Each structure stands twice: as structure tokens, then as C-alpha cells.
Amino acid sequence: xxxxxxxxxxxxxxxxxxxxxxxxxxxxxxxxxxxxxxxxxxxxxxxxxxxxxxxxxxxxxxxxxxxxxxxxxxxxxxxxxxxxxxxxxxxxxxxxxxxxxxxxxxxxxxxxxxxxxxxxxxxxxxxxxxxxxxxxxxxxxxxxxxxxxxxxxxxxxxxxxxxxxxxxxxxxxxxxxxxxxxxxxxxxxxxxxxxxxxxxxxxxxxxxxxxxxxxxxxxxxxxxxxxxxxxxxxxxxxxxxxxxxxxxxxxxxxxxxxxxxxxxxxxxxxxxxxxxxxxxxxxxxxxxxxxxxxxxxxxxxxxxxxxxxxxxxxxxxxxxxxxxxxxxxxxxx
Length: 333
Prior knowledge:
Elements: H1 6-18, E1 24-27, H2 37-52, E2 56-61, H3 73-84, E3 93-94, H4 99-111, E4 115-118, H5 122-129, E5 158-161, E6 167-169, E7 179-181, H6 182-186, E8 189-192, H7 200-210, E9 215-219, H8 225-235, E10 242-246, H9 267-272, H10 277-287, H11 299-305, H12 308-316, H13 319-322
Parallel strand pairs: 1-2, 2-3, 9-10
Antiparallel strand pairs: 4-5, 5-8, 6-7
Helix pairs in contact: 1-7, 2-10, 7-8
């Protein structure tokens, strides 16, 4: 039986209860590089939904994976959002300052017997999953073995969450139905990596609950990851927020998704072409079919020109990608 410390129980209970007070969304970039135009569009859509609902919009920096963090990236992210007029509510939330909370939850899950050590190498898992498609599902090699939690051959195990059989479901507003089979489509989830780093799914699930997030709007590339986070939330005795997974902005012609690693264009590129903030907002909004190509307006003006129902119709349809290429026809500032 899971036994969380009283202060953690109270924190999660207060967060979940807070959803009843109204909309609370969040934008959660990692400081691994500058925001590209796809990141900026997702931020705009998430911010718009929160403002149109009269709710709150939190900014969370997902900086737990320190080897991937880049010097100055967080400062650049905050500056870009401010320049575009995308204001957030309350102080910036940094996951690196919440490690104690995540570690406490992790310890409680281990003591409850919900975790087990896994010593499978990445190479082994890649070889096993390769014939079955691009999304690897852990086959459960270490699920019932007694391999210990300590060092072996100079290496610690990862810690996996044992999932119950059945479907993992969540309320999905724009993407495919929120449902995946735990055993066949998800697999037991890593919550602490072999290198000692706390895993993304653990921290994200704890944050959505403890921060009282009612709605998550993010890219469709994270749709499948939702099941793993829902699994953590269910082990903590809580229901997930509502989700909206929107289409990604892809490179014209190739269809490749934009990537920080590949240096996909962000605000620096727009500025070099002479666009000011209203020009960039126009480009981003036109790519989501919210305004005609060539529009110039501030983020605040965009809120005034939209209705919650109008935004939802665009998010639920194909409009988010319909004008992705023609949106680039925004005039010079």
C-alpha cells in the first residue's frame, strides 16, 4: 500500500482540488536550446487557451536532465516569451528545485513494492524492440527477477514502475482517443534512470497534480507519453488533467519535425528578417488558422479577437497545420 508523507498527500490533494476553481494550464520547455517556431506556436496556443478561459498559465522549466541543459537557454526562453507578450502567472517553477518532492514520491513507491530494479541495457532493449516498430515497449525481462538495487559491474539499475494490466485512459480534447493498453502499448515505466537522474514521467506527473494543472496543451509528439504519466498519477491515487495534443509544425517539403538540436528557426531568425513582435504573433497565429496570413497584432489583441469556442474549433480540426507554410508570408515590420 502506498504511504506518502502527510505533507506530500496534502500538496497533491490541494492541487487536485484546485482544479475545481477553474482553468490552470502550463508551458514546460526544457532549457536545452532556444525555442523554435513550433515551440513558440505551442506556447501561444496554450497561453491563448488559458487567457480565453479566464484562467492561469504557469511557466515550468523542465531542467532535471542537466547534461542536456545549455548555459543561457532558460534566460533566452523567458526573454522570448516576454518579448512576445506571453505573460505567466506566479513565479517560474523549476523542476531542479523540486527534486526533494520527486524523490519522496519515488521512495514511497519503492517501499510500496510498486517499483523494481531493471538492469537491461539500452542496446538490449533496442535490439528487442526494433522488429516491432519505432516505439519501444519494455518486455518485462527484470519484472520478476531478484537482481538487487545496488551497484553491479560498476552500474546501478534503473527503477521501473510496475503497471497493472488493462487500459490507461485520459480525457483527450483534440488528438486521438486517450487510451493505450498498459502491457502491449506502454510497458513498465522508468522513473529513475540508471545514471541516477529522476525521470521525466515521474516529475511531470507529480507536477501536474501538485501544481493543480487542469488542462495541458502540448505537441502531438507527447501524446503517447501521456499514458506513462497517467500511470504514475493513478499509482498516486489521482486522476489526470484534460489534454489537448496539437499537430507539430513541420519543415515545408520534407515533413520533418522542427528540432532544437537541428537549429530550427526561432525568434532570432524572425528578427533577422525584420519582424517585430506583432509580426511574429501574426505568423504564429496564421499557422494555426487563427488569423489570415500577413496579419500583424499583439498577443493581447489576438485574445480580444478570439472566443473560447473559436479556438477550440481550430484546435479540434485541421487548422493548426493548414496554413503552416503560407503563414510565412507575414509582412516586414
